[in-house]
Amino acid sequence: MTVSMKSNIKEVLNDVRHSSYTEKKSSYMDVNKVNRLLDSINDFKNDLKEKTVRIYNVNENMDKLTWFNIDDLNEDCLMALNDLISSAKDLQSSLIRQYVVMDKILKVKEIAKEEIKDFKNSIDELKESYEDLESVFFSLPQMPEFVETTKQLSLI
Q1: Which of 147, 137, 116, 120 minimizes the C-alpha distance to 62?
Q2: Whether the predicted model's global pTM rises above the 0.70 cut
């Protein structure tokens, strides 16, 4: 029994010695691998920032459209606005799917936390922008109170 125990101890000792020797020989961290990882993270963050800026620009341009006077718009304009709203909804849906994947993967590692937060904010603003367009040009004009209030405000 003692021989068996001694054999087990020697087996573990050899495994530990081999591991210790191997780790001492290898560099603590492969600098090139670490640099590639950091470069990839920076590339991801920069791509996400660019996408976020693009979405904020879309939101700003859509917000400007809400100031158009509905009385100045013909059916073609309203049809184009309807198409714009549908495209914006589709865009927001795609962006939400991207965000969900990113958030699950990166939240744990806290990589690009601020960039992801800003990206999510831009998506939320996109939804608000197309909902505003839909309200201003399609929902509110159907409400008699809104039409009357708008007429009274135009007289001021």
Answers
A1: 137
A2: no
